[in-house]
Amino acid sequence: MAASEIEQWWIDKFQENLGPIRKVAGWTTQQLADELGVARQTVSNLETGKSPMTKLQYLALRTVFSAEIARREDRDLARIIKTLVDDPIEQRIRERRAQEQDGEAVADNAPVNTDGGNAADNAIAEKRKPSAATLKDAKTAATGKPTLSTAMQALAVITGALASGTAAGIITYLMFPDGGPNKR
Questions:
Q1: Taking the CA atoms of the chain, what radius of gyration do you get in angstroms?
Q2: Each residue of 88-106: b (16+ CB within 10 Å) or e?
Q3: pLDDT averages per 10-residue partition of the chain, 184 residues
Q4: What global pTM score does this model have?
Protein backbone atom coordinates (compact mmCIF):
# COMPACT_ATOMS: atom_id res chain seq x y z
CA MET A 1 0.00 0.00 0.00
CA ALA A 2 1.72 3.17 -1.18
CA ALA A 3 1.52 6.66 0.20
CA SER A 4 0.25 8.06 -3.08
CA GLU A 5 -2.58 5.53 -3.04
CA ILE A 6 -3.58 6.50 0.50
CA GLU A 7 -3.35 10.18 -0.33
CA GLN A 8 -5.64 9.62 -3.31
CA TRP A 9 -8.15 7.88 -1.04
CA TRP A 10 -8.18 10.97 1.19
CA ILE A 11 -8.55 13.30 -1.79
CA ASP A 12 -11.38 11.23 -3.30
CA LYS A 13 -13.23 10.95 0.02
CA PHE A 14 -12.88 14.69 0.67
CA GLN A 15 -14.16 15.51 -2.81
CA GLU A 16 -17.09 13.15 -2.34
CA ASN A 17 -18.09 15.07 0.81
CA LEU A 18 -17.09 18.62 -0.16
CA GLY A 19 -20.67 19.86 -0.60
CA PRO A 20 -21.89 18.73 2.82
CA ILE A 21 -18.70 19.99 4.50
CA ARG A 22 -19.09 23.40 2.84
CA LYS A 23 -22.73 23.56 3.95
CA VAL A 24 -21.88 22.66 7.55
CA ALA A 25 -19.31 25.48 7.48
CA GLY A 26 -22.21 27.76 6.48
CA TRP A 27 -20.62 28.87 3.22
CA THR A 28 -22.08 29.30 -0.22
CA THR A 29 -20.16 27.99 -3.20
CA GLN A 30 -19.10 31.58 -3.93
CA GLN A 31 -17.86 32.16 -0.37
CA LEU A 32 -15.70 29.04 -0.48
CA ALA A 33 -14.40 30.03 -3.90
CA ASP A 34 -13.49 33.45 -2.52
CA GLU A 35 -11.65 31.84 0.41
CA LEU A 36 -9.65 29.72 -2.04
CA GLY A 37 -9.14 32.47 -4.60
CA VAL A 38 -10.77 30.49 -7.41
CA ALA A 39 -13.90 30.83 -9.55
CA ARG A 40 -17.24 29.66 -8.17
CA GLN A 41 -17.43 27.20 -11.07
CA THR A 42 -14.21 25.51 -9.88
CA VAL A 43 -15.78 24.71 -6.51
CA SER A 44 -19.01 23.62 -8.21
CA ASN A 45 -17.10 21.30 -10.57
CA LEU A 46 -15.26 19.75 -7.62
CA GLU A 47 -18.48 19.21 -5.69
CA THR A 48 -20.27 17.58 -8.62
CA GLY A 49 -17.26 15.49 -9.65
CA LYS A 50 -16.98 17.14 -13.06
CA SER A 51 -13.35 17.91 -12.26
CA PRO A 52 -11.10 15.59 -10.26
CA MET A 53 -9.64 17.20 -7.16
CA THR A 54 -5.88 17.64 -7.24
CA LYS A 55 -3.62 17.22 -4.24
CA LEU A 56 -2.98 20.97 -4.21
CA GLN A 57 -6.72 21.69 -4.16
CA TYR A 58 -7.19 19.14 -1.39
CA LEU A 59 -4.45 20.73 0.72
CA ALA A 60 -5.85 24.22 0.12
CA LEU A 61 -9.37 23.12 1.07
CA ARG A 62 -8.24 21.30 4.21
CA THR A 63 -6.20 24.34 5.22
CA VAL A 64 -9.12 26.74 4.66
CA PHE A 65 -11.49 24.53 6.65
CA SER A 66 -8.93 23.98 9.44
CA ALA A 67 -8.41 27.74 9.73
CA GLU A 68 -12.17 28.27 9.87
CA ILE A 69 -12.52 25.58 12.54
CA ALA A 70 -9.80 27.25 14.63
CA ARG A 71 -11.15 30.77 14.04
CA ARG A 72 -14.68 29.88 15.12
CA GLU A 73 -13.68 27.04 17.47
CA ASP A 74 -16.22 25.01 15.47
CA ARG A 75 -15.95 21.47 16.80
CA ASP A 76 -18.99 20.40 14.80
CA LEU A 77 -17.29 21.20 11.50
CA ALA A 78 -14.15 19.38 12.65
CA ARG A 79 -16.22 16.34 13.69
CA ILE A 80 -18.02 16.30 10.34
CA ILE A 81 -14.71 16.24 8.44
CA LYS A 82 -13.33 13.58 10.76
CA THR A 83 -16.50 11.47 10.49
CA LEU A 84 -17.05 11.79 6.74
CA VAL A 85 -13.43 11.75 5.56
CA ASP A 86 -10.75 10.81 8.07
CA ASP A 87 -12.41 7.96 9.98
CA PRO A 88 -13.49 5.99 6.86
CA ILE A 89 -10.02 6.34 5.32
CA GLU A 90 -8.29 5.30 8.53
CA GLN A 91 -10.59 2.26 8.72
CA ARG A 92 -9.83 1.43 5.09
CA ILE A 93 -6.08 1.66 5.78
CA ARG A 94 -6.42 -0.66 8.80
CA GLU A 95 -8.38 -3.17 6.71
CA ARG A 96 -5.85 -3.07 3.87
CA ARG A 97 -2.94 -3.53 6.28
CA ALA A 98 -4.72 -6.45 7.93
CA GLN A 99 -5.21 -8.06 4.52
CA GLU A 100 -1.53 -7.56 3.70
CA GLN A 101 -0.46 -9.01 7.06
CA ASP A 102 -2.71 -12.01 6.57
CA GLY A 103 -0.89 -12.63 3.32
CA GLU A 104 -3.88 -11.90 1.16
CA ALA A 105 -2.93 -10.61 -2.24
CA VAL A 106 -4.34 -7.13 -2.71
CA ALA A 107 -4.58 -6.47 -6.42
CA ASP A 108 -3.45 -3.08 -7.66
CA ASN A 109 -6.51 -2.94 -9.86
CA ALA A 110 -9.00 -3.92 -7.16
CA PRO A 111 -12.14 -1.78 -7.28
CA VAL A 112 -12.03 1.31 -5.14
CA ASN A 113 -14.74 1.25 -2.48
CA THR A 114 -15.87 4.81 -1.93
CA ASP A 115 -18.42 3.83 0.72
CA GLY A 116 -21.53 4.60 -1.25
CA GLY A 117 -20.04 6.38 -4.24
CA ASN A 118 -21.78 5.95 -7.55
CA ALA A 119 -20.43 4.21 -10.65
CA ALA A 120 -19.16 7.48 -12.16
CA ASP A 121 -17.22 8.29 -8.97
CA ASN A 122 -15.72 4.80 -8.96
CA ALA A 123 -14.73 5.16 -12.63
CA ILE A 124 -13.00 8.47 -11.90
CA ALA A 125 -11.18 6.95 -8.95
CA GLU A 126 -10.08 3.98 -11.07
CA LYS A 127 -8.61 6.28 -13.73
CA ARG A 128 -6.55 8.05 -11.08
CA LYS A 129 -5.17 4.89 -9.45
CA PRO A 130 -1.39 4.71 -9.63
CA SER A 131 0.35 1.91 -11.53
CA ALA A 132 1.90 -1.06 -9.74
CA ALA A 133 5.36 0.37 -10.43
CA THR A 134 4.42 3.69 -8.88
CA LEU A 135 3.02 1.96 -5.82
CA LYS A 136 6.13 -0.14 -5.38
CA ASP A 137 8.46 2.86 -5.77
CA ALA A 138 6.50 4.85 -3.20
CA LYS A 139 7.15 2.39 -0.38
CA THR A 140 9.79 3.35 2.12
CA ALA A 141 12.85 1.14 1.62
CA ALA A 142 13.70 0.70 5.30
CA THR A 143 10.28 -0.29 6.61
CA GLY A 144 8.34 -1.30 3.54
CA LYS A 145 5.55 0.97 4.81
CA PRO A 146 4.39 4.05 2.93
CA THR A 147 4.70 7.51 4.37
CA LEU A 148 2.18 10.22 3.69
CA SER A 149 3.41 13.67 2.84
CA THR A 150 3.96 15.91 5.83
CA ALA A 151 1.13 18.19 4.77
CA MET A 152 -1.35 15.31 4.53
CA GLN A 153 -0.32 14.01 7.96
CA ALA A 154 -0.46 17.45 9.56
CA LEU A 155 -3.93 18.22 8.24
CA ALA A 156 -5.34 14.90 9.41
CA VAL A 157 -3.84 15.40 12.88
CA ILE A 158 -5.04 19.00 13.10
CA THR A 159 -8.59 18.06 12.13
CA GLY A 160 -8.62 15.25 14.68
CA ALA A 161 -7.32 17.55 17.41
CA LEU A 162 -9.84 20.23 16.53
CA ALA A 163 -12.66 17.68 16.53
CA SER A 164 -11.77 16.69 20.07
CA GLY A 165 -11.50 20.32 21.11
CA THR A 166 -8.28 19.66 22.98
CA ALA A 167 -6.06 21.75 20.77
CA ALA A 168 -8.51 24.32 19.44
CA GLY A 169 -7.33 27.08 21.76
CA ILE A 170 -3.65 26.37 21.16
CA ILE A 171 -4.02 26.25 17.40
CA THR A 172 -6.12 29.41 17.41
CA TYR A 173 -3.46 31.18 19.45
CA LEU A 174 -0.67 29.95 17.18
CA MET A 175 -2.54 30.99 14.05
CA PHE A 176 -3.76 34.32 15.48
CA PRO A 177 -1.40 35.36 18.32
CA ASP A 178 -2.76 38.92 18.27
CA GLY A 179 -6.19 37.71 19.34
CA GLY A 180 -7.80 37.04 16.00
CA PRO A 181 -7.62 37.72 12.29
CA ASN A 182 -9.72 40.89 12.53
CA LYS A 183 -8.02 42.50 15.53
CA ARG A 184 -5.27 45.02 14.83
A1: 17
A2: bbbebbeebeeeeeeeeee
A3: 84 96 96 95 97 95 94 92 94 90 62 46 46 42 54 67 58 57 50
A4: 0.60
